[in-house]
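Hey, I'm writing a tutorial for new members on how sequence and structure tokens pair up, and I'd like a real worked example in the thread rather than a made-up one. If someone can provide the structure for the chain below, I'll link this post from the tutorial.
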Amino acid sequence: MKYHIQQESDIPASTQLYNQICFAIAARYYPPGHRLPSTRQLAMQTGLHRNTISKVYRQLEIDGVVEAIAGSGIYVRDTLKKKDLKDSFQSKNTMSEFPDQEASKAVDQLIKLGCTLQDIRKIFTKEIDWRIKCGSKILVSTPREDIGASMLIAEDLSPKIDVPVEVVPMEELEKVLLNSNNGTIVTSRYFLQPLETLAKKHGVRAIAVDLSDFQKELKIIKELKSGSCVGIVSISPGLLRAAEIIVHSMRGNDIVFMTTISDNNNRLLALLKASNHIVCDGPSLSVVENALIKNRSQLMRLPQIICAKNYLTIDTINQLKMEIGVIK
């Protein structure tokens, strides 16, 4: 992962770096448990002072995205890491031994820890019942101001997971859980920490899903000629803010860059008139295409449309299916 910092930008260098690291983690350039570059390595790559980088890492730790291990370094938080005996079972196709042998090993280990067979039955029954409860539905949640991010996650999950998927703003989630504390809360890594606390309070689980790395779209933007104008259209304000900082860090003032929420008709028309290329998410594609047809007479040229259809990675969807017990 290479970081690009525009030193002369109005956007603070620490903000540029923070957003790029967050995106790298959310897109799984750095998977859970991965050690991040040292402050010295980042200083050499970005030209930033190590104190600035330390400040960024401290903010990432406060936000629950990374964890600092004394004498070792900064690591991506592994939200699936269990401190007790709750290891996720592998799929039948990849298990090294038969399931009954794995179960026997687990029972033997619990006996060595001093558990009776009655205790072990209670442990397994409680764990299985909890997982079934958590797998009854998916509650996709982000702050109300960026509920578009939840809608993008739900858009990818609904066709692929055979359980109900519901979008709930973070501000309303506790009320929903008070009425029915079943299900798994799903969010992006940006919002995981407060939702983990809420999930624990109500006896459910919260899981972060990994975003697409958008390599195809970023490659196109990286290779645009100087002076080109690129527009990004999304239903997620948070995605637009992150994209603006990342693209600006990558290209600076070398290209003109515009963003808009898809339901802002005036801003969308201005973007259509100015842009050579338009990158949009799946839900925004039909809006962009209809706006092009409706306003064709006002456009000097038709921009090239690039649709980023997948917001989530296939791997993270399969991991979620396994965690809630619906993978086949």
